[in-house]
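cron nightly-structures :: item 1 of 1
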Amino acid sequence: MRKTLGLLALLFASALAHAGDAPSLPKLKLDPARVAVAGLSSGAYMATQAQIAYPEIFHGAALVAGGPYGCAGGQLATALGSCMKGTPAPDVGALVARARKQSAEGRIGELADLADAHVYLLHGRDDAMVAPSVAEAGARFYEALRDGVPGLKGMQVHDDGGRAFAHNLPVTGKGDDCGKSVSPFLGHCGFDAAGAIVAELFGKPAHAVAAPRGELRTFDQDALRPGGQDAFLADQGYLYLPPACAAGKPCGLLVVLHGCKQNAEAVGEAFVRDAGFNRWADAYDMAVLYPQARASFAPLNPQACWDWWGYSGADYDTRQGVQLRWLVDAVRALGLPPTTR
């Protein structure tokens, strides 16, 4: 019995030491007008949830192989069918009506805050995981908001669905993985998706950068648990910090959300180093936050997807959702001014 207690104490101490290995997020001189979010697959669904729930914070969103906000309606079966295969097709009109109702109830942000938003929807013609028709429904959702909600005529929506690639994030260079969906889900298609994303969200760069010169750091994700509540994330996340941001100059922020089976536990640092965002971060004086979800069987999320169907709770896609609250706390920890709603 004494040996068992000693072993448990050792394991507990080891877990505490591991949790404390990563530092907290640094406080940056964050420009609130230059905060955006991007994601692939489940990360794309999470990105649209972040923007719609907090439009006053996330002024831009890039969705790669994702569908419309609220698509799953809290049902895994709907997520796997309508929201991935497009059978039946997502009801865009009903999803827009739901979003407007939620906004009126204060469950998500004020849709009027999308007035100057930039939305970029990128999806491949050869995607067999998330049907192109589902991604098109994502574009129709934003267009319906733009055309139907007063004051949103200035919202920019770019639907980029004509390129030939599978369920992955295209990167520069040529390879045999462009038409496949294989780990680490970075398709060498000769197209720099990261460069296209940051240009869509932040405008053309002032200059090009051949290679990243900043620092890729880990940080303690558990330290940001909202009210101590488990957000079903890994112990550590990643932050890429350009030299200018580290030196205290005004800095933008792009939150980049991995797809299912693309978290660091599954692919190592392949996504956070090789997706292409870090190089452009230097050119834009823009930090890149790479949060990490974790795999679990209770709740059922064995592929470390972001919650876009409700495994973290019924409020998963609202301002009460634990992962969305964690995400906003992380942005605030990085220096989002307290005057922002």
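cron nightly-structures :: done
The longest strand covers residues 30-40.
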